[in-house]
Amino acid sequence: MLFSEFKKKEVINLKNCQKLGRVTDFEFDECTGQIFKLIVSGNNKLAGFFSCESDYVICYKDIKQIGPDIIIVDICIK
């Protein structure tokens, strides 16, 4: 899968069915190529201008399923 395809997917939290946003970046191990964390921008379109909503950093172990259109994660949000 290409990153350009990956970042088009909506990220949904399994705990509360909340749309978290879309993948904007990820962190990976340079030696193995394994993804460690996903960076998901907040769902608010104007977050950069009018909101203090931050990005979500999701550990790879919290990803439950990657489908054709969405990524399902299981995280606790405070």
- Biggest β-sheet: strands ordered side by side in the sheet: 4-3-2-1-6-5
The portion of residues forming beta strands comes to 35-45%
The average pLDDT is 85
Structural class: mainly beta
List the total number of helices: 2
Q: What kind of assembly state do the chains in view correspond to?
A: single chain
* Sequence stretches where pLDDT stays below 50 over 5 or more residues: none
**Biggest sheet features:** 6 strands, mixed
- The helix fraction, in percent, is 10-25%
Principal-axes shape call: globular
Question: Which value, in Å, is the CA radius of gyration?
Answer: 12 Å
Question: Could you tell me the number of beta strands?
Answer: 6
Distance between the termini: 32 Å
Order of helices and strands: HEEEHEEE
Name the descriptors.
78 residues, six-stranded mixed β-sheet, 10% helix
Structure description:
The structure is a single chain. The chain is mainly beta. It is built from 2 helices and 6 strands; from the N terminus they run αβββαβββ. The protein is 10% helix and 41% strand. It has a 6-stranded mixed beta sheet, with no helix packed on it. The chain is globular, with a radius of gyration of 12 Å. It starts with a helix and ends in a 5-residue tail after the last strand.
